[in-house]
Write a structure and sequence with these properties.
Blueprint lengths: L2 H17 L2 E6 L4 H14 L3 E5 L7 H7 L3 H6 L1 E3 L2 H4 L5 E5 L10 E3 H11 L5 E5 L8 H4 L4 E4 L11 H17 L16 H17 L11 H12 L3 H22 L1
Parallel strand pairs: 1-2, 1-6, 2-3, 4-6, 4-7, 5-7
Helix pairs in contact: 2-3, 2-8, 6-8, 9-11
Bound molecules: S-adenosyl-L-homocysteine (SAH).
Length: about 260
Amino acid sequence: MNLKAAQDTRSEAQVAARLSHIRIVLINTSHPGNIGASARAMKVMGLQHLHLVTPKNFPCAEATAMASGADDLLERAVLHDSLESALDGCSLVLGTSARMRSLPMPQMDLRSAAKSALSEHEGQHIAIIFGQERAGLTNDEIHRCHQLVHVDTNPDYSSLNLSQAVQVMAYELRMAVIGGAGNTIAPSDWVPVDAGQMEMFFVHLEQTLLDIKFMNPEQPKRLMARMRRLFNRARPDQNEINILRGILTATQQTAQKHDN
Ligand code: SAH
């Protein structure tokens, strides 16, 4: 395994550890394909624990086919004959629902629910429950939940396929762990130079701008401050700094010839 792959594995293990106390509970699922597709949706996001309450048909070849490589989750799936047993040990139960219910209980948008589940309930066992394909969660099942969670949709067509609802939930949980969309993944060969190298570059840049008379020493204005902001934002690596310094040296030499 190369270094990058080892780092990825390590950080994936950290993500998986933070998601490890979350269980996805599918209730009375009719279509085994949805169970397989849910396992796949979970595994790609780093979720591991699938619990099934009285599925209509499981285990089933259709579930395995739809799991497409996530069959380890299916093999480890825990079967229950009641929701109560599936919720055993969980201190937070989130119920997912397509319909906004007129029940006096908190209903949260998915993103906020994922964030609060991971921040306020760190380390506790959390169950996220998904209803049957046609009927959704029954009132009895909803009464077991601390909170209802809704995926915002077109109000005239608000019912997601079960496994797609699992996918969106799993994605938001993952985002809540890794810190959201603001994280960009740096290329593996990119190591920004240190502050000392940046300083030498700025000194060289300033000298060059004076040599070519772009910068007026009597009236420098905020040119260097702007240049600093630009290049600090770019966070160049060693190769890029070498190129930039080379360009500056060539510019100075050309300007010198010109002056002579
Ligand atoms: N008519 C049902 C739809 C069931 S879809 C209902 O109103 O709930 C099967 C399951 O997928 C739902 O029980 C729920 O767990 C999940 N689901 C589908 N659409 C969803 C949405 N917009 N928000 C949250 N969960 C949803």
